[in-house]
Amino acid sequence: MNLFKISIRPTSFFHTPLRSDIIWGHICWAIFRLKEELELKDFLDKYKKGNFPIVVSDVFPEGYLPAPKYPGIIRYFSETKVDIDLKELKKAKYIPVSIYEKLKESFEAFLEGLKIYFSNDEDKISSCFLNFDEWHCSINRLTGIVEEGMLFSKECMVAREEVKPIVYVKTLFDKSYIEEIFKFIGENGYGADASVGRGRFEFDISDATLPESKKPNSFIALSHGFESLSEFKRCFYDVEVKFGKVGNNISKNPFKRPVVNFKPGSLFILKENSEPKAAYGRIKDSVHSSIDFVHECSLLFPFFVRWQDG
Fold first, then answer.
1. Which residues, 6+ apart, have CB-to-CB distance to 8 below 8 Å?
2. DSSP strand pairing (165-171 vs 64-66)
3. Residue closest to 58 by CA, chosen among 260, 238, 224
4. MF terms per GO, please (predicted)?
5. Interval 199-210: pLDDT, tens
6. How do residues 74-96 score in pLDDT, each as one tens digit?
7. For residues 260 and 240, is the Cβ–Cβ distance under 8 A?
């Protein structure tokens, strides 16, 4: 499969986080608008047959990947009494790709890289965006007049100047196809309030590589998704319950059924002699009470590593 890196340059505020399942939903809408309904149906059928035409990651700062959700790291540094801030290590959302490069050498080199990184006093990157409240006035729909004292706020996100948001795309399609899809999304807007100019972005697309092991026994999730725990030897994860919505006013009831997802950084130890897959999980249907064509992306984007558990 091809692996591409999408470098996002926001040109407006965002109201919706850039994350794998929502990006995938926008990809489906783009295929529907740019191609035709039959091509979208064929696209979705491929997933049902066990193929993965497009697997997309969450957004990360360029040069960083999600920190592994592995409690043994905290235990190791606590027992060895290394002079690092364990609270900062525990809450870390991202670590540099260069530290994962060391994992290809040995697990000890990886731990040494973590020790050096968390021993310095520099601020650690925790997000690609800054959040703030955008205030609005309520309007009486009968009179068309602003109501006195009736203010409400919406959470907005603006890109940090010092951080470049990155999304990885693993796909069977070529670069020009993916470029066309993301151009449509960027021009028409991503997420909430796209109709009033929110969620606009420009982007660059390039070939990408990840520092994966040649003989992996585990993977770290780069996306939100779900797979049965029985598929793995051991798992270390954070979970969320997502209450998703449908877009484009296709239903009076915008809410999907709730789904459980593992968060990026979750670590999955593969069973013995288990062959690595392009993705784990599936595309779920029947996620809306009245619309049968609504789907939910619960695919885990695997970043394969050789992990020392224990």
1. 18, 59, 159, 164, 165, 166, 167, 201, 203
2. unpaired
3. 224
4. RNA binding
5. 899 999 999 999
6. 888 888 877 787 888 888 999 99
7. yes
Q: Is 282 exposed, middle or buried (0-12, 13-18, 19+ CB in 10 A)?
A: buried
**Coil vs helix vs strand at 43:** helix
DSSP 245: B
Report CA torsion sign: 298, 299, 301, 302: positive
- CA-CA-CA-CA torsion sign (283, 285, 287, 293): positive
Query: Which is more confident, 243 or 301?
Result: 301
What are residue 268's phi and psi, to 5 degrees? -125, 120
Distance CA 182, CA 5 (A): 12
In the block, tokens 């599936």 appear at 282
Q: Residues 234-271, buried b or exposed e (16+ Cβ, 10 A)?
A: ebbbeeeebebebbeeebeeeebeebebbbbbbbbbbe
Distance of CA 44 to the CA centre of its chain: 20
pLDDT tens-digit map of 26-38: 999 999 999 888 9
Q: pLDDT tier at 125 (50, 70, 90 boundaries)?
A: confident
Can you point out the beta strands (E) in 107-164?
129-139, 146-159
Structure tokens at 250: 């296709």
What is the DSSP-derived secondary structure letter of residue 122?
S
Three-class secondary structure of residue 161 per DSSP: coil
- Sequence-distant (≥ 6) Cβ neighbours of residue 31 within 8 angstroms: 39, 40, 43, 181
Torsion over CA: 286, 287, 291, 293 (sign)? negative
Distance CA 279, CA 55 (A): 7
> Dihedral sign, CA of 7, 105, 273, 72?
negative
